[in-house]
Prior knowledge:
Elements: E1 8-9, E2 20-21, E3 31-35, E4 38-43, E5 46-47, E6 59-60, E7 66-68, E8 74-81, E9 87-95, E10 100-106, E11 115-117, E12 124-126, E13 133-137, E14 148-159, E15 162-174, E16 179-182, E17 188-194, E18 201-208, E19 215-223, E20 230-233, E21 248-253, E22 269-271, E23 283-289, E24 297-302, E25 305-311
Parallel strand pairs: 6-8, 8-14, 13-16
Antiparallel strand pairs: 1-2, 3-4, 4-5, 7-19, 8-18, 9-17, 9-19, 10-13, 10-18, 11-12, 14-15, 20-21, 20-23, 21-22, 23-24, 24-25
Amino acid sequence: MGTISNYILDGATVAQSTGVQNPNGTPAADGWYKDSSGVRYLTNGTFSSGGAVPCDCAEDCGSTVITRPTGTVSTDFFDFNTGQGAGVVVVRFTPSAVPVGIQVATSLPGVLPNIWSSTVSPYQRERIAAGPFFLGNTANDFGLVASSPWNNIVEREYYNGSYTNTGSLANYYVANGSLNLGATPGTLVLPISKPTSGEMNVSIAVTSLDATCSYTLQTVCPELILELSRFLSTDEGKNCNTAAVYPLPTYLISIQNPPQLAVPNAGDFLFTDNLATSYRADGQYVIHPSATPATRYVVNIVNGIITSSFACP
Length: 313
């Protein structure tokens, strides 16, 4: 990420300056600039009128969908404030057919979220290598293959609708585990558990290595999984013909559009609690909505994601 050393201010701080230049003396790119004194917007090398304002430079989570157009090779950094409530944060990412790389982290300690799902087979997509995780269509891969280096990629920060160059360049070496290409995946969904109230930021870096890349991105604020999406489950290994009890509460996150809250579909997530702190273990289960025990479904699960589902006769 950029620091004040990447630019030349004409004052001691952003608050005390009228403009910003690049190290070569040319006007810095339009956008938001910040330091410990606050944040201001720069146009044609000059700060807009008004003083610097305090800002954590994080976007608020919510219904807003960020659309990144084609035309630029860059890594774009996003920071989302998820508010105070506990629940499940849902990240929705729709890459173009041209592959786009994404990395997600949170300000909470623990394992990084890394299992995405979509309604397009093979449904679950797991990031198993460091660096950006590239998703897209093999037919549009612009030479993006394992063991390929990509150098001098511009880094930008997103804030309030604008992208600002940080002045830094990044190099990437694409490992085999960094690629998940095939059919265009559509919208990918990543649930992130926020088990307690308090601050939590979600930081996302999206890497576009070709000017034809584009994507949309949304971070939905935390909510508990609804009671309507609460199921009861057998233990693993049962089918429609097995006499069974249903002792295991199981919670569904539907990724369908529109969501089908009480019907399990391939691509949906199943968790053991309404905060999504742990996936239902791999295997085959029979489940039914808690309110309608006669409506039963057989589901197969891999990494917490339903890979197949059908209703019992």
